[in-house]
């Protein structure tokens, strides 16, 4: 669709983008301020708050945990999600409809309810340690991305190519890895990225699944904020924004960012 | 073989979701009916407590207001983005995606710096002489709503940009060539075609804000608790697990009701699906 834009509407859109980006600019400014409290515009410039992050071992440890949990959780979700997405698209007839709904339940059920229920039944009820519970929680949280995003790219895959390979004598598993997988590469990468970023930013599930010595970075940031209100938090936030920039660069290089509006 | 593959491939994910999500959530809900005082006693206790029902109504109110504001801002902005030429459009999309991919803690924290007692807004209003004493803007419904709108507008913009770009150009041109003024085209052609997308966006924002935890925790505090923060407080601070499970059950019922009713309405209102 194409139509002309009223200047007032254009001005409104510019204000919206200012509203979206100004708070992030303020965080960057506050992280550079040479004061012991958070302020903007920064008074004096220093990088000592960034150095301070590395002095606090809790930030380092939780960052490592967050990263591990995101990689393992996303990996697990792809491991069970890709076969499910494949079956849903390959054998569209014959599989019950509720199966598709089942796999998106993790986004339908409120995250905070899911986190609490996991703690109650798996961690405390069955006595599973916190760390594997955390990975399970994150793997399920991101499963819908694995099934739906990979599924979207399987939907446009021509399965007759696969049948041709098989009828020419290629074993099914080898066909999957050499014919199907390369064709849905973009979907797998997209699912991985969306899942990873969702996991690394998660609060509502992780907040229940932390224990002695195990916590994730967002939970540690919340805890730190309750005691200190210094620019350290702003500098941690800037580092997290740099992770976002990195992720966006990967998306742009592999799929193009317009992918995200589809 | 086919039959085996068909079920076998979906089996791991089916088992995982069933055993690790459906069963735990159902157990949580089931425990609320096992009280010695009666099957529904925890629910009557919840709805008889002014404190707790206030939190439920506040959560619904905040979620509704956030949804309404995000819809208007998101739709108008997406409309502008959809008309932009290619290069500008990519920049606009990057500007919307970036906050979306930045964590909820970071984005809520930004509003803590802006709205705090010694925050940016107070200090600029003071130095401009508009106010003589700093206002307390944090820990109000307003601060939670501002931060939530900030959280969800990018999601709305991206959802609706996709929807608006999907509207065939011919339809808009046909309307114009038949003499409709731009404003009439907007209200009589574009808006009705966008309704299903608007509903999808509204459901995403409503459920997201209704069940949020981090934002009310940071910007609402104890004074402006919402269902998510109340659940956490009951479970992890006062260890009232039945109370927490009751809150969880109420949240699940409301969320699923909203999603299923709205998606049914969306399907019925879709003018292209005739």
From TrEMBL, chain A:
Gene Ontology CC annotations of this record: plasma membrane
Keywords assigned by UniProt, alphabetized: Cell inner membrane, Cell membrane, Membrane, Transmembrane, Transmembrane helix, Transport
Domain ABC transmembrane type-1: 63-251
Chain ranges passing through the membrane: 12-32, 67-86, 98-119, 131-155, 176-197, 203-223, 235-260
Pfam entry (one): BPD_transp_1
Superkingdom of this protein's organism: Bacteria
GO biological process: transmembrane transport
Gene3D superfamilies: MetI-like
Subcellular location as annotated: Cell inner membrane; Cell membrane
InterPro entries: MetI-like, MetI-like_sf
Keyword Cell inner membrane on entry: yes
Membrane topology reported for the UniProt record: Multi-pass membrane protein
PROSITE patterns for this protein: ABC_TM1
Keyword Transmembrane among UniProt keywords: yes
Family statement drawn from the similarity comment of this UniProt entry: Belongs to the binding-protein-dependent transport system permease family.
PANTHER family: INNER MEMBRANE ABC TRANSPORTER PERMEASE PROTEIN YDCV
Official protein name in the record: ABC transporter permease
Source organism per UniProt: Aliirhizobium smilacinae
Origin organism lineage: Bacteria, Pseudomonadati, Pseudomonadota, Alphaproteobacteria, Hyphomicrobiales
From TrEMBL, chain B:
Protein species of origin: Aliirhizobium smilacinae
Gene Ontology terms: cellular component: plasma membrane
Locations listed in the record: Cell membrane
Domain ABC transmembrane type-1 residue range list: 56-263
Record keywords, A-Z: Cell membrane, Membrane, Transmembrane, Transmembrane helix, Transport
PANTHER family, per database record: ABC TRANSPORTER PERMEASE PROTEIN, INNER MEMBRANE ABC TRANSPORTER PERMEASE PROTEIN YDCU-RELATED-RELATED
Keyword Lyase appears in the UniProt entry: no
The protein, known as: ABC transporter permease
InterPro entries according to UniProt: MetI-like, MetI-like_sf
GO biological process, one term: transmembrane transport
Signal peptide: none
Protein family membership: Belongs to the binding-protein-dependent transport system permease family. CysTW subfamily.
CDD domains named in the record: TM_PBP2
